[in-house]
Amino acid sequence: MAELDHPKISVKRQAELLNVNRTSLYREVQAHQEREENIQIMHAIDAIYTDMPFFGYWRMTAKLREKGFNVNRKRVRRLMRLMGIHGISVDGT
Length: 93
Fold this sequence. Notes:
Blueprint: H1 11-18, H2 22-32, H3 36-51, H4 57-66, H5 73-83
Helix pairs in contact: 3-5, 4-5
């Protein structure tokens, strides 16, 4: 695939050679890179979710804040969606 920091071939030229839009190269690289802080949060989400799979992103956010993570509900929702998990309803609805 393309190397954004290639010393000799520009990103524009690489996109031309691959016959793709330059923006698609940036999008693909960004999709695979997650910040270390988010990875730590995702590990914490996984641990909490294993014990309490009925937690949605609101309760998960509260629990993460109790554990000292500085997160908001939008971030937690995005990470849970990225992980493919969601709260399980306990009352059958």
